[in-house]
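During the practical work, I selected for study one protein's amino acid sequence and its backbone structure tokens, as given directly below:
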Amino acid sequence: MTDSALRIKNPSVTLYAFHLCQDLSQEPGKFRQDADQLWQHCAQLSEPLAIPDLKSLPEKIPSPPSQTAIASRYLELLPDHGRLTYTAPLQIEGSALTVEVYPVKIHDTYALDLTLYYQNVTVPASQFSRLNPQGCLLASNIQPSLGQTLVLYGEPVGTPEEDRKLADACVDAFFQGTDQKPELSASGHLFGSPIFAYDNGKEKPTEQCHLLVWLNRHPETLNLVEKTSLSLFNLLCCRSKILFAYDQARWCYRQTRGLYGQLEEEVKGFKELPRDPETRLEQLKQKLTEMPLKTFDYAGYLRDMEDHKTAIATNASNYDTWLKKISEYSLEDDNIEFLEDFLHQRTKQFQNQIQTNLNYLKPGQQLFDQMLGSIRGIVEIDQAERDRALEKALRDKEKADQAREKSLERWIASVGIGLGVSGISSQTDAKPLEAILIKLNPNVLIEKCPRAELQPCLTYTFWFVLFHVLVGVGFGAVTALILGRIMHRGGGNRE
């Protein structure tokens, strides 16, 4: 049978999209700056769906909700049972496309249930492309930070043996013209009807494509879907938050692994430090400036990984709660292993992988701390030696300056005394000098300079000046010698 011969009745698609609106790092009651992004992108669907009124969706949702609403675990954000219903001019065999919008807040997450369906019409599976015009429902357009799940629903016309082909044909038509088609990953039965799970295997939430094809083959299926719709909504929210937490933990691991590589390079460089104390000290001071920041980042990433591991455990517990609620309504022949496997296999795998990464990276934090302590110790030693050398140089300089100052003082004192003595000597009576000269050579002196003119003559002669200068120099030298001995003894006593 060709895909065109595979037919389905009352086809519909439901988009469950989840976007984080609050962070742990924010104060209670505070919302992220991009909290309303989900509503903004939903409003942009007004063009491909040809519903102009959809543009006003963000204006109809209070932002932020009241404090009482913020504390609510589950909150409908619109009045009148929280739903908006539009009729789009996209018809199939005379049946108009109906669009329902149901925005809610689940704890710290904005969640959207957007359902498009045709009633009372039977169409080929290829007509599922009409439920995703221009690929508007894909994650690349909605861009929910936590990811999304698509559920294709309908009543198959053919035999049960054709269900797998019908599911594949619906997926092919829905992703027609795109390169984001997911692959079949699991199958089962829920509420008496076959269900097929598809996934593209991407880790990044905004790139993930999780899709379920649910073919209604049991008279109780639709009734049970309505009874468990809230549980399914919450279960898919927990699933998205688990995948988001794991993706964030992987991102933290990559960042920490990069810092770990830098640490290994630092260790190698630490062993090859220059022997010159000055150069080594400058390099270590530079490392001492950079490494605390890296150490802080490293510890922060490890803490975040622990937080993401806790988030996975918390949401896994919530997932299990909602799964049990769904199981309470399951029928005897139901098989929901594809839902249980996510909890018991993938979630456990995520937690084990994060713990393995933490075990691998935690010794690096200790190495960071040890290396930082070693650098500080070496810097303190080198700085102390440098300070001692500088202090000794300053003391030596101070002693040299004091010695020069004392020498200058001694010289000034000696010159001053010498000049003073010379001045006093030059102003005394010249007779003593005259007597000396007469005694040495009285005849010559009397003949050349009569006694009456002897004093004026001697007063202005070279020998008169030289005599008084020598007297001053002699007194200055004696003074300098005495001062030098006194200062030397004084310095010795201070020593």
